[in-house]
Amino acid sequence: MKSPITGKEMTLRASTSRLVFRKEEFEYFHLGYYCEDSDELFTTTELDEMNLNQVYNQYRAKHNILFADEIISIRKKYGLSANRMSQILGFGPNSYRNYEKGEVPSMANANLIQTISEDSNIFRNLVLRSSDLEDGEKTKVLAKVDAAIEIEQACSDENKYVSMLFENMLPNVFSGYRKPNIQKFSEMVVYFSEKLQPTVTTMNKLLFYADFLNYKKSAYSISGARYMAHNYGPVPVRFNGLFDYITNKRMVDTQIEAFGEYVGEKFVLPPTKSFNQDLFNEIELESLQTIASTFSKCNASQIKDISHQEKAWIENEKGKRKINYNYGFDLIHV
Predict the structure, then answer these.
(1) I need a labelling partner for 132 at 20 to 30 A (CA). Which of 71, 203, 232, 266 fits?
(2) Is the dihedral of CA 18, 45, 176, 159 positive or negative?
(3) Does 182 share its domain with 309?
(4) Is 243 helix (H, G, I), strand (E, B) or coil?
(5) What values do phi and psi take at 240, rounded to 5?
(6) What is the pLDDT, as a whole number, of residue 175?
(7) Confidence (pTM)
(8) Tell me, what's the pLDDT at 167?
(9) Percentage of residues in the chain having pLDDT higher than 70
């Protein structure tokens, strides 16, 4: 971005700041473009939104308020419109739609949304008791809710297994303020397998850089995965179990290949599988593309050495600690 005063290119800076939201103060990384000649900091609409999102994210995590993507997924599970959800829950006409766009719900509304996310039968009872629905419409909505409950019950064991793999399903700063999403994580593996056919070591670094770059750009990770500082660089927590799950689902395959004097595995796509970009927004797709392009010529040893230069690994490697996503603002290679 060019300075509106001098016309010269400015540098993007992140500095610690504090902001009050709903009578609570939160620390965040304020992003802005710095003009050296005028000693002023300038922002764009996108940066203003990201700065605010960092504060909203902390407030949501502190008070266990669902994030926008979770609120969207509840509605989609039942196949209902945002207006219909507002009607059933007793919200204002546009409230649910605004929550999907990122508005933070009041605590009362947030608690109700949290309740129906945990128990579909409670939502079913709300539909039954709704005086705003005509009998014919109520019957249609109940059919959709009952179908969703059946699917939940059928997938119960698998969902428990996925929850175990991710260790912690609550969004916080160690998940990039996303609820861990096995579908998106799997498709990230599919994407990099399709583009680069990486080894396990390389795949771990590609996933780390993609998630943390996306956080750097938007204040959200892509997959919600947690990462730790491993001897060979940052890796998703329980990555072996996650990769086993994805290969058992035949979303990707592995092949044995010789790498000089060593033999190892690389990820490849089955002939019938292709990347599903519909799960990702524009920023997330750009993050994936950037990482694939940036590291396309790196082998496992090279990308490992590159990741060892990142503050995220340096400051957490000694205790093999989980990596706070705020280290995304310190990335030096993307």
Answers:
(1) 71
(2) positive
(3) yes
(4) helix
(5) -60, -45
(6) 97
(7) 0.92
(8) 81
(9) 100
How far are the Cα atoms of 29, 201, 219, 299 from residue 302, in angstroms, in the given order?
A: 30, 10, 28, 5
Structural domain range at position 33: 11-63
Are 27 and 137 part of one and the same domain? no
Cα–Cα distance for residue pair 180/209, rounded to 1 Å:
17
Residues 59 and 72 in one domain: no
Name the burial class of residue 319, with classes exposed (0-12), middle (13-18) and buried (19+) by CB atoms within 10 angstroms of its CB.
exposed
Q: Please report, for residues 75, 78, 116, 127, 136, the alpha-carbon distance to residue 142 in angstroms, rounded to integers and kept in the order given.
A: 14, 9, 14, 7, 10
| Calpha distance 72→69 (Å, rounded) | 5
For the chain, the domain total comes to 3
Same domain, 203 and 246: yes
135 shares a domain with 99: yes
**Residue 229 included in any domain:** yes
**Residue type, position 243, single letter:** F
85 Cβ contact partners less than 8 Å away, ≥ 6 residues apart: 74, 75, 78, 91, 96
Angstrom distance (rounded) from CA 306 to CA 162: 31
Q: What is the DSSP track for 312-326?
A: HHHTTTTTTPBPPGG
Burial class (CB in 10 A: 0-12, 13-18, 19+), 242: buried
